[in-house]
């Protein structure tokens, strides 16, 4: 479970998180949505100290990972990070290792697992995300969707109790988004505790237990997906959802044919 | 004027012996420079560790900012004034290694900084310590990017090693000068010496190219 209490974070003079509090209960999925620059990715990155929250407290499974700008000492921080899986927008697979090596490396290095055992675990996870046949290729040969599924398998290899997803499908071609979301949905159904920053409203509606809307470094509103998507109480939420819908429609709408500019000129014929 | 290479042929055993010394000195200096360059390069990634960063930066500034010949003479003629009398070959190796290390450290630092930040973040997010992440994830990738500029450094090191002849080390340069002092055939002997350096530098370049190629193929 993730408990975020009164967290503040600034980059220089820009305040990106202002008094944010949020709890992700065990075995639940919380989806964080909001316009870009709202601080949602920063909030997620604070949860495993990739960013250092300036004030407030964050607890992962009842252990304080950071309190008032002071993270855990390195050793304990590493141990806690090992139990907190993180999936990045840009995958961040290790390009100098094959897919299976990507997945098995951390258990070997961090947990001291025997290589054979780690490989077996990695293969099992790769099969789970549908990449059993890609074990021995390098990441550069994988599609974006395959890369992200491999990255999820890599995070799962540490047997995390909590998973953080930072816009996991934002860098993918539209037709590859579904395969990644499907893996995440399965995870959620298996009872993983998940915090997901995403723009995929379909996923939020279908999988989230709680949807949190952020804007300007604050939580504007949170509630069940039905409540947020059908009956939002805050104007900021409505504005954001409207902008999303408009964006989608604008993308789908065929452009009206341009008028012949000559026709508009009077007396030109 | 006619060229007479007879002294070169006559002195070939000495020249080859000198070549071996040149290779030995260069190889030892290369090792020292690699270790030093790696350490200093990594230390200079993080200005927050003030003392270490300060020392490392002063080292790079001083060594890059002064002539190698002066540094070699400081070791060879300067240290004895403090009662520290190192053998000539050791002065040569240390001098060359320290000099080359300052350049290599910049190569290392640049290569590491060119690796996407997300690589370190991904490794840390899996629970690896900074050292583990550096060793397992960042350095192997950075190493590949170091190879081309490292090739330049190696070439420079081989050529700069000619200066150790001034420390009475019997490298190929000094052996050549010795032949000249008895035969007075400066042009022919220096042509031969230049040719030997040319072969050495190109052999080093070729080896590094092979390593580079192999690393590219491995990654598929």
From TrEMBL, chain A:
- What membrane topology is given? Peripheral membrane protein
Q: Which UniProt keywords apply?
A: ATP-binding, Cell membrane, Membrane, Nucleotide-binding, Transport
Q: Per its UniProt entry, which superkingdom is the organism in?
A: Bacteria
Where in or outside the cell it occurs: the entry states: Cell membrane
Entries under InterPro entries matching the protein: AAA+_ATPase, ABC_ATPase_HisP-typ, ABC_transporter-like_ATP-bd, ABC_transporter-like_CS, MetN_ABC_transporter-like, P-loop_NTPase
Domain ABC transporter residue range list: 2-241
- Give the GO molecular function terms: ABC-type amino acid transporter activity; ATP binding; ATP hydrolysis activity
What does the sequence similarity comment in the record state about its family?
Belongs to the ABC transporter superfamily.
- Record CDD domains: ABC_HisP_GlnQ (cd03262)
This one is known as: Amino acid ABC transporter ATP-binding protein (PAAT family)
Query: Which Gene3D superfamilies would you find in this protein's record?
Result: P-loop containing nucleotide triphosphate hydrolases (3.40.50.300)
Region Disordered, annotated ranges: 250-269
From TrEMBL, chain B:
Its GO CC terms?
ATP-binding cassette (ABC) transporter complex
The principal localisation class reads membrane
One BP term from GO: amino acid transport
Quote the subcellular location field of this record: Cell inner membrane; Cell membrane
**Membrane topology per record:** Multi-pass membrane protein
Which keywords accompany this UniProt record? Amino-acid transport, Cell membrane, Membrane, Transmembrane, Transmembrane helix, Transport
According to the entry, every stretch annotated as the ABC transmembrane type-1 domain falls at: 19-208
- Family assignment from sequence similarity: Belongs to the binding-protein-dependent transport system permease family. HisMQ subfamily.
> Where is the secretion signal located?
none
Check the record and name the PANTHER family matching this protein.
GLUTAMINE TRANSPORT SYSTEM PERMEASE PROTEIN GLNP (PTHR30614:SF20), MEMBRANE COMPONENT OF AMINO ACID ABC TRANSPORTER (PTHR30614)
Role, per record? Part of the binding-protein-dependent transport system for glutamine; probably responsible for the translocation of the substrate across the membrane.
Instruction: From the Swiss-Prot or TrEMBL record, give the protein name.
Output: Putative glutamine transport system permease protein GlnP
Q: Which organism is it from?
A: Azospirillum brasilense
Q: Which PROSITE patterns match?
A: ABC_TM1
Any stretches that span the bilayer, and where are they? Answer: 20-43, 55-78, 84-104, 189-208
SUPFAM superfamilies documented for this protein: MetI-like (SSF161098)
């Amino acid at each position: 479970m993730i408990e975020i209490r009164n967290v503040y974070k600034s980059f220089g003079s820009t305040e990106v998180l202002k008094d944010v509090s949020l709890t992700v209960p065990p075995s639940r999925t919380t989806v964080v949505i909001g316009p870009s620059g709202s601080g949602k990715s920063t909030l997620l990155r604070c949860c495993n100290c990739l960013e250092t929250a300036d004030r407030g407290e964050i607890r992962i499974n009842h252990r304080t990972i950071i309190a008032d700008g002071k993270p855990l000492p390195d050793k304990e921080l590493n141990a806690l990070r090992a139990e907190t899986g993180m999936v990045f927008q840009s995958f961040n697979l290790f390009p100098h290792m094959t897919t299976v090596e990507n997945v098995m490396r951390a258990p070997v290095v961090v947990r001291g697992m025997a290589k054979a055992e780690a490989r077996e675990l990695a293969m099992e996870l790769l099969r789970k995300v549908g990449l059993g046949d890609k074990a021995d290729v390098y990441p550069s040969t994988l599609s974006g969707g395959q890369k992200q599924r491999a990255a999820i398998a890599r995070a799962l290899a540490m047997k995390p109790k909590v998973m953080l997803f930072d816009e996991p499908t934002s860098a993918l071609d539209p037709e590859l988004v579904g395969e990644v979301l499907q893996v995440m949905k399965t995870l959620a159904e298996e009872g993983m505790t998940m915090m997901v920053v995403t723009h995929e409203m379909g996923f939020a509606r279908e999988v989230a237990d709680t949807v949190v809307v952020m804007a300007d470094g604050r939580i504007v509103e949170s509630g069940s997906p039905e409540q947020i998507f059908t009956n939002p109480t805050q104007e900021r939420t409505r504005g954001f959802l409207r902008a999303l819908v408009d964006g989608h429609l604008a993308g789908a709408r065929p452009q009206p044919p341009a008028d012949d500019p000559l026709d508009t000129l009077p007396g030109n014929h | 004027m006619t060229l007479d290479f007879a002294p070169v042929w006559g002195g070939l055993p000495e020249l080859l012996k000198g070549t071996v010394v040149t290779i030995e000195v260069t190889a030892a200096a290369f090792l020292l420079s690699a270790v030093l360059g790696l350490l200093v390069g990594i230390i200079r990634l993080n200005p927050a560790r003030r003392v270490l960063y300060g020392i490392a930066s002063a080292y790079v500034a001083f060594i890059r900012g002064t002539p190698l010949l002066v540094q070699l003479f400081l070791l060879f003629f300067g240290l004895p004034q403090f009662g520290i009398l190192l053998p000539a070959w050791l002065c040569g190796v240390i001098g060359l290694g320290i000099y080359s290390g300052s350049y290599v450290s910049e190569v290392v630092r640049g290569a590491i900084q060119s690796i996407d930040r997300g690589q370190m973040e991904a490794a840390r997010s899996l629970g690896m310590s900074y050292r583990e992440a550096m060793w397992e994830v960042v350095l192997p990738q950075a190493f590949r990017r170091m190879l081309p500029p490292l090739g330049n450094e190696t070439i420079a090191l081989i050529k700069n090693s000619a200066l150790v002849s001034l420390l009475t080390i019997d490298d190929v340069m000094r052996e050549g000068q010795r032949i000249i002092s008895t035969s007075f055939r400066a042009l022919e002997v220096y042509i031969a010496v230049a040719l030997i350096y040319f072969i050495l530098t190109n052999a080093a370049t070729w080896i590094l190219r092979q390593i580079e190629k192999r690393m590219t193929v491995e990654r598929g």
